[in-house]
Design a protein that fits this description.
The chain has about 575 residues and is an alpha+beta fold. It has 4 domains: about 110 residues, no CATH class; about 55 residues, no CATH class; about 240 residues, Rossmann fold (3-Layer(aba) Sandwich), CATH 3.40.50.1110; about 120 residues, Immunoglobulin-like (Sandwich). It has a 5-stranded parallel β-sheet, sandwiched between helices. A 4-stranded antiparallel β-sheet has the order 20-21-25-24, with no helix packed on it. Helix 8 packs across helix 9. The longest helix has 20 residues. The N terminus is likely disordered.
Length: about 575
């Protein structure tokens, strides 16, 4: 279809109408009076003119009901001479008016489009900028593309590239995995820009007593899917790893339910693949130990590497394709007690060591990201605040593609202010499952409910959040309000103004109003940061807050799986 030509504007000079009228006037009578009468008696519109004339004063010889004749460029319509090519009252023929809002162009009624616009169907469009009609009426741009100077231009968001006229995320697009047009075979996922071909996905667990299920009574006694542990159980150790059995939790003295079953079983339930990989989960943490005792080169770490090697060897015996997909960490209490200020560097080193050593043992190309939760129990140890949860968040921000903060633990049920109940462990495991699904199935690096921008105007501080599942909610039912919903303000003045109100601004922002505009240096807003020393952790006591999102992910056991805001201490801009 040829490109439509923008409508031209046609204008008939009023002088032409006057000349035509004078030419048709009778020869008798006062020519000056007749001309004056004709000029003052014009009543027609467009190209039409009334041809009725008379003598002086309009009383000589009576009047005629039709013109004596029309010029070649006009047609006679009743008592008028009209231009049927351009008169909207007689368009293409006498007494054929155009609909309201349309003009007559070359005898055809059409839209009254402005300059630089063209008619496409029943619309006026600018072919230079309209993405539905770019350069031509029948030339739509692909989704996400803009129209500039009559040509489609695709502007891809961050993390995407242009592939065959459409934006693709090479890190997670099965049709363009790692490169445009490089498709994964059917049934394989694209994660970290690699097609993942596995039948057994191995997840390691490390940390201290919470990673071992200390104090948690077993609640997961059956395996609903085909998830696996070693023959030695979830807390597998490093020797006699000779086979794989269905994943169930076991009680060994004070050690019971771990996060393993809650995580693995929800991952399988949420999977949309027809035959998803089975999860093999094995733990090698040590109760009560800081990073220095469980890092690379220690017996605990060597147990983890023994589990990696055994998993690969056993899988190969049964023609299974095994890979370690992640390591789950529950840790930080002992490093809090030891005052470790290098915990960020420790976490970065820990993840890098796991990835390098796992790849060396298995030969797998896939990365090994670290999933960790924030420590929330420092008040039980006698302190009002802790740097450990802040360092855990900082490590994730330093390596957002490799370290993922699952969230805090202040909303979970505890048995003693430090260790979780059996339901608490399984509940936490389902939160790990959500992160696993996002990062290692959907291929989207996980971010928790965390602040991304803090600004101030006078006494009002606005905190904008990354919200996994908007809208934000201030929930004082599931978690008791510690005051100001857990928000506080601090600076170096010695007497910073207090928080007088906290309210939701929109789906992703919170307004914190102070009693006065702050004047001190080092202005900071904090959340779930300060608690009463000696109080146990949990939803009723300890350092906590009331801000959550609206995540509706279904739990296998009826737990609400909202994402709760992380512990934080952020500068105010």
């Amino acid at each position: 279809m040829p490109r439509p030509v923008p409508q031209a504007r046609f204008k008939r000079a009023r002088a032409l109408v006057t000349v035509v009228a004078l030419a048709l006037a009778p020869a008798c009578g006062d020519a000056t009076a007749d001309a004056t009468s004709e000029a003052s008696g014009e009543a027609s519109t467009g190209a039409a003119t009334d041809a009725t004339t008379g003598g002086p004063g309009g009383s000589t010889g009576g009047s005629t009901s039709a013109p004596a004749g029309c010029p070649d460029t006009l047609d006679q319509c009743g008592s008028q001479c009209v231009d049927v090519d351009h008169d909207p009252g007689h368009c293409g023929g006498c007494f054929s008016p155009c609909p309201a809002g349309q003009v007559c162009q070359l005898g055809v009624c059409d839209l009254a489009c402005g300059l630089q616009q063209s008619v496409c169907g029943d619309r006026c469009v600018d072919l230079d900028v309209d993405p539905l009609h770019c350069g031509d009426c029948d030339a739509p741009c692909p989704p996400g593309a803009a129209c500039e100077d009559g040509a489609c231009v695709v502007e891809c968001p961050d993390g995407h590239v242009l592939c065959d006229g459409a934006c693709a995320q090479l890190a997670s697009d099965e049709a363009s995995c790692g490169a445009c047009g490089q498709a994964c075979p059917d049934g394989q996922l694209c994660v970290y820009a690699q097609c993942v071909d596995t039948t057994i996905d191995h997840v390691l667990i490390s940390g201290q007593s919470l990673s071992e299920g200390y104090g948690a009574q077993v609640v997961s006694v059956a395996q609903p899917y085909e998830n696996l542990s070693f023959n030695t159980g979830v807390r597998a150790g490093g020797v006699n790893l000779t086979g794989l059995i269905p994943l169930v939790e076991t009680q060994a003295g004070a050690l019971g339910e771990t996060i393993a079953s809650g995580m693995a079983n929800l991952v399988r339930e949420l999977s949309e693949a027809p035959t998803p990989p089975r999860l093999l989960v094995s733990a090698h943490g040590v109760s009560g130990q800081p990073y220095a005792v469980i890092k690379k080169g220690t017996p605990a770490y060597q147990n983890g590497m023994a589990q990696v090697a055994a998993g690969a060897e056993i899988a190969a015996l049964f023609d299974e394709r095994h890979a370690v997909r992640a390591v789950a960490i529950i840790h930080g209490e002992s490093d809090h007690l030891g005052g470790n200020q290098d915990y960020v560097a420790n976490l970065l080193e820990w993840q890098a060591d796991y990835e390098a050593d796992v790849q060396a043992i298995t030969g797998q190309p896939y990365p090994v990201p670290m999933m960790l939760c924030q420590m929330s129990s420092w008040t039980q140890y006698g302190g009002a605040s802790s740097t450990i949860p802040l360092q855990q968040l900082a490590a994730a921000r330093a390596r957002p593609d490799r370290i993922f903060v699952v969230g805090p633990k202040y909303f979970l049920p505890y048995v003693d202010g430090v260790h979780l109940t059996g339901d608490g462990e399984r509940w936490l495991g389902e939160h790990y499952a959500k992160v696993y699904r996002a990062a290692l199935i959907d291929g989207s690096p996980w971010r928790p409910l965390e602040p991304v921008e803090v600004t101030r105007a006078g006494a009002e501080i606005t905190v904008r959040f990354h919200v996994p599942a908007p809208p934000l909610v201030l929930d004082a039912e599931l978690v008791a309000d510690p005051g100001a919903y857990g928000f506080e303000y601090h600076d170096d003045s010695g007497a910073p103004p207090g928080v007088v109100s906290v309210e939701l601004l929109d789906e992703t922002s919170v307004r914190v109003t102070l009693s006065a505009a702050p004047v001190g240096l080092n202005k900071r807003v904090r959340y779930a940061f300060t608690g009463a020393p000696g109080q146990p952790a949990g939803p009723q006591t300890g350092a906590r807050g009331n801000l959550r999102d609206s995540d509706a992910t279904p739990s296998r056991h009826g737990y609400p799986l909202y994402n709760w805001a992380v512990h934080f201490d952020e500068p105010v801009e």
